[in-house]
Write a structure and sequence with these properties.
The chain has 201 residues and is α+β, with helices and mostly antiparallel strands. Helices cover 29% and strands 24% of the residues. The strands form two sheets. Strands 2-1-7-8 form a four-stranded antiparallel beta sheet. A four-stranded antiparallel beta sheet has the order 5-4-3-6. The relative contact order is 0.28. The N terminus is likely disordered.
Amino acid sequence: MGDGKSGMTRPPQAGPDHSDPDHPPPVRFPGAAPIIVTATMGAADQRHFDALRTAHFPTERNHLAAHITLFHQLPPSALDELDRLLRRIAADTPPPAAMLREVYSLGQGTAFRIDSPGLMAVRERIADHFAGMLTAQDRGTPRLHITVQNKVTAAEARALLARLAADFRPRPLAIAGIAAHHYRGGPWEAAFARKFRGVRA
């Protein structure tokens, strides 16, 4: 499993992406592109959640692939240091076990909650390394999730929640790696992606 680029953009759409609750404007670093860090899913899960976003996000707001945000705004100056750290983490960490636990309401949208102590441990390792650089939001404990709908009416959100919850059963979610992206006010620009390559004990 090699390292490579991981794009989050859904071309050819453009314009600011405020559809995703994972990234709160305004940007902390004016004039520069903050770094968003995400966990990457296995290919089958990525296709599944991309299809849900395509089906249920307002088309004009669906600028991103499905994703699991770990950090919202690391400083642009930390990119090289982050790359070195994630290379080390990817090399010694096996793919973390994860479970989809429930479908839940965002008020004007719908998301899937993720339970993964292993992925949270990876996030804590990164947070410890960059402790002095974290925003207040990134210093908090995140609620890992995948958003499949947002910025719709409350009635639309309730209808989708009911439909998805009716058939939902907790199941494993494949976590493949970790990626960094530049946020420039619209679709994210891929910086790098690393696959977890550690061997399970």
